[in-house]
Amino acid sequence: MNIEAIKKVYFVGIGGIGMSALARFFKQRGVDVNGYDKTETDLTRTLVQEEIGVTYTDAESEMKKDVDVVIYTPAIPQDNVILNAYRRDNVPVFKRSDALQWITEAMYSITVAGTHGKTTVSTMIGHILRESGYGCNAFLGGISVNYNTNYWSSDNKVAVIEADEYDRSFLKLKPDVAVLTAMDADHLDIYGTAEAVQEAYIQYTENIKPDGILIKKHGLKNGNLLKGAHKKSYSLQNTGADAYADNIQIKNGGYIFDVKGKGIFITGIHLDIGGMHNVENCIAAITVAKQLEIEDDDIKAAVANFKGVKRRFEYIVKNEKVVYIDDYAHHPEELAALIKSAKTLFSKRRIVIAFQPHLYSRTRDFAAEFAHALDMADEVILLDIYPARELPIEGVDAQMIKNKMGNPNVTILSKEGLLSYVTNAPLDLFITAGAGDIDKLVAPIGEILAAK
Q1: CATH says 107-304 is which class?
Q2: For 361, which of 107, 152, 250, 351 is 20 to 30 Å away at the CA?
Q3: 314-450 domain in CATH 3.90.190.20?
């Protein structure tokens, strides 16, 4: 599909983080953009303010006529009235991944895949390219705190795209630079086995354009099977990687470090966001920037100005009395990295974490791993599982995680119960985590803690 030929587009599921970025891309290009989503959110309200038409009624009367293409997200139910009506009328219908494929074919493309870290790494890359003046079109899976958006444009025909492994959609992308952050098992409801997940990531690297480059985390299992005409590796501190951090210092909840490796030596990088895993994410982004021959001073200035991604180790409250961190962590490895980083940064504080499991299938598949990660906290509050696209599975609930924990300080609460707990409990380091609707509690919890 030639993206230049599209003049009128309709999005089914326009309020999704990835879909809304595409909607903004087409709107910026002068295309007539409309769409449907089930629920009004801050993001859909922002789209409306940007003169993108959004309806919340799934009915044929809400369809726009004479559209060139319809783009939908796999999260949309099969019985969606609008989507099925467009199919009945023989309007060209494509997945979100198809649209991203068109963009990777039309532009010099940098894609970021991996079980964890891809949102932060892609946002960091986009930020460095934007701040340095290099320029890019960024399609992100989170909201950049610097610019309060998940998309921005540039006259430079370069795209930075977060590559989503759900539904194998990332296998349609054709990158010039492919970044791979992790290959841990996830989405086993789709893939079935951990081996199938790894095979998909290997296939992702097979789609790198001729003479393209793979930038991968050092030490990945089966990393020797990954493809790419050229390859570079990065690591937090493994000196066997092509790029790694050295002389890491903690300062005011952030980090100062050097970047060393083959053909790279930058001193005094200042990253003002928490989480040691974010230092490693920054090494990945810097490796990409060096591949594009961006000057060291421009990289340093951009990283120093990077304010993070909403819901990625985001400081909601940070004062002498209490620190409140909110994070999107919904996989055991992410949860472990979150708690470990918080313990390192604030070693004298008592960690209380409220975690909302995401998906019945993920909870079933990783209950023991979630329990092991949560055991690192001093106290744990579990909310009910957020089902998202799934129906309940018998015997799978938050109690399943609690039963596998060694830490006795664990309680299952409702959302209302959590707000009451935060109001009354003596807290000095509090974390909320999860990919469901726990984010709706962040503002009220922040107000409660800031007022203490």
Answers
A1: alpha beta
A2: 351
A3: yes
From first to last of the 452 residues of the chain, give the pLDDT tens digit.
888 899 999 999 999 999 999 999 999 999 999 999 998 988 999 999 999 999 999 999 999 999 999 999 988 888 999 999 999 999 999 999 999 999 999 999 999 999 889 999 999 999 999 999 999 999 999 999 999 999 999 999 999 999 988 778 889 999 999 999 998 767 667 777 878 889 999 999 999 999 999 999 999 988 889 999 999 999 999 999 999 999 999 988 889 999 999 999 999 999 999 889 999 999 999 999 999 999 999 999 999 999 999 888 899 999 999 999 999 999 999 999 899 999 998 999 999 999 999 999 999 999 999 999 999 999 999 999 999 878 999 999 999 999 999 999 999 999 999 999 999 999 999 999 999 999 999 999 999 999 98
Query: Which residues, other chains included, contact 247 with Cβ-Cβ below 8 Å and sequence gap of 6+?
Result: 256, 257, 258
Evaluate whether the domain defined by 3-95 bears CATH number 1.10.3720.10.
no
Q: Quote the distance between the C-alpha of residue 251 and its chain's center.
A: 25
pTM: 0.84
Give domain limits for the chain: 3-95, 107-304, 314-450
Contact criterion met (CB below 8 Å) for 226 and 178:
no
Q: How many CB atoms lie within 10 A of CB 440?
A: 10
